Amino acid sequence: MFDVSSFRRQFAFFHHHPDWVYLDNAATMQKPDAVTEAVSRFYQQDNSNVHRGAHQLSQQATAQFEQARQTIAHYIKAQYVHEVIFTSGATAGLNQLAFGLMHTVLKPGDRILLTQLEHHANIVPWQLHCQRYGVIIDVVPLTADRQLDLNAYQQLLALKPKLVSFSHISNVLGHIQPVQQMVALAKAAGAITVVDGAQGVVYQQPDMRQLDCDFYVFSGHKLYGPTGVGVLYGKTQWLEQLTPLCGGGEMIDSVSFVNTTFNNLPFRLEAGTPNIAGVIGLAAAINWLQQYNNKLIIEHKSLLLNAFFQGARQIKGVAILSMPVHNAGIVALNVDGEHPSDVADILNQQQVAVRAGQHCAMPLFDYLALNGAVRVAFAAYNTLDDVNQCLLALEQAVEILTA
Amino acid sequence: MNLEQLLADTDIALQAIQQQALPDIKQAKDWQTKYRILMQLGKQLPPLPEKMKQQELLVKGCESRAWLLHYHDKKRDKHFFVLDSDARIVKGLMAIMLCLVNGMNSSELAKFNLSQQFDELNLKPYLSQSRGNGLTAMAAHIKACSSAT
């Protein structure tokens, strides 16, 4: 049995905000003490720049930094440690990919395949560079129950896209995509596969050997880690084909004004001083998380999700967009005829933190013909009490809005 | 509805809000009462016709969409506004903001201290709490109208 109260006690945030119900977890997660302590310990005791100092302090910081890379590589089951590239987050990873594959891999007239569920970070970087290079973007539509249409996916794969990029879990609806199957189908069609793990990484330990995708991106702050750090995983053969998006610092081998040659992986894709404390904090988050059985966490979250669905369905005027099955713990909903920001505003008055709006996924909302939704996102540290308080607040919102 | 009619109707509605709703808001004991009043305010204002909801009237920085139309009666040096929003709470708060500045001349508008006024109405948290609700953007926009010609 998952002991939620002892889990929750490890987050100082809840001690400081005993009256708040925090359900904006898909935006960012709270940090356990193990992470905040690791970050402050680094700054207080170990701070030095990495990979360049002639002194012992720098060598120690470098060792700690590279140990963190190993921790993460091991966690996601990457074949090689150098396949873990540190970025500032999933968005930065996708931008590096879209920029880095153009010209070297993607050529004018090539097609790439995205899905209707994607958030802007998995649309806009591709758009920016595809437009410049004349690469065509196709989009996988949804079925009536807002799952990806896998038949359409296969038909679009028949157009032979060079690359397919999709999210593991929809950041709006919480729906889990069949990534394993989708990667396999894309590979069979000869495409490079990119999995956006922004929401997926906290749901399930990513296993690069099993998933076998070519690239995988995620953000640290959605995995109990610090903000401003993330990972771009790639298979060596593909990482080597990426043109670096940023230049400078440790990423070079030699520089002249005629030519610059790049350092080896992972450094050629990590220009400038990295977010050292962030990387160490992320590794601390992963080390901390591994003491828990994720199966039990998934069970706990689905308990919360089911209780929420059950309660929300009883509230007249609440329209739920998400499906309860294959759901990672996110519920998008609306109050009939009301703007989501009004609903979230009234929840906020009752100290229930949710997000309202289009959640950086405007194409999805265009498709659903809605101007937004309220998003309730559960995490392992949430309790049934949180669910109940949110439901009561939602009832109050409906009452005030429809009075 | 033509622009003149819309401005005139909004002017009347804003004056009524200033006289009736402001004292109620100030005295409201809890947030629920305040919200119930705010929800009603938006309904008192004539809606901006769909065809007038132009891109250039959109106030940037809102999670919800909000439109602000400004008219400066130069002869009398009086500033008038028309507003609309998808979200009712934002619309109510904007109605309050506008009823405070409606009909001001340029120098009054330039001097107007919105945050102080909202403080007196016990509404200050709504101004500062979120960039996302667009109130701060709206306030800046209104101030800028004092120097617009």
From TrEMBL, chain A:
<protein>
    <recommendedName>
        <fullName>cysteine desulfurase</fullName>
        <ecNumber>2.8.1.7</ecNumber>
    </recommendedName>
</protein>
<keyword id="KW-0663">Pyridoxal phosphate</keyword>
<keyword id="KW-0808">Transferase</keyword>
<dbReference type="InterPro" id="IPR020578">
    <property type="entry name" value="Aminotrans_V_PyrdxlP_BS"/>
</dbReference>
<dbReference type="GO" id="GO:0030170">
    <property type="term" value="F:pyridoxal phosphate binding"/>
</dbReference>
<dbReference type="InterPro" id="IPR015424">
    <property type="entry name" value="PyrdxlP-dep_Trfase"/>
</dbReference>
<dbReference type="Pfam" id="PF00266">
    <property type="entry name" value="Aminotran_5"/>
</dbReference>
<feature type="domain" description="Aminotransferase class V">
    <location>
        <begin position="21"/>
        <end position="389"/>
    </location>
</feature>
<dbReference type="InterPro" id="IPR010970">
    <property type="entry name" value="Cys_dSase_SufS"/>
</dbReference>
<dbReference type="InterPro" id="IPR015422">
    <property type="entry name" value="PyrdxlP-dep_Trfase_small"/>
</dbReference>
<dbReference type="GO" id="GO:0006534">
    <property type="term" value="P:cysteine metabolic process"/>
</dbReference>
<dbReference type="InterPro" id="IPR015421">
    <property type="entry name" value="PyrdxlP-dep_Trfase_major"/>
</dbReference>
<comment type="similarity">
    <text>Belongs to the class-V pyridoxal-phosphate-dependent aminotransferase family. Csd subfamily.</text>
</comment>
<dbReference type="InterPro" id="IPR000192">
    <property type="entry name" value="Aminotrans_V_dom"/>
</dbReference>
<dbReference type="GO" id="GO:0031071">
    <property type="term" value="F:cysteine desulfurase activity"/>
</dbReference>
UniProtKB/TrEMBL annotation, chain B:
<protein>
    <submittedName>
        <fullName>Fe-S metabolism associated SufE</fullName>
    </submittedName>
</protein>
<dbReference type="InterPro" id="IPR003808">
    <property type="entry name" value="Fe-S_metab-assoc_dom"/>
</dbReference>
<comment type="similarity">
    <text>Belongs to the SufE family.</text>
</comment>
<feature type="domain" description="Fe-S metabolism associated">
    <location>
        <begin position="24"/>
        <end position="144"/>
    </location>
</feature>
<dbReference type="Pfam" id="PF02657">
    <property type="entry name" value="SufE"/>
</dbReference>
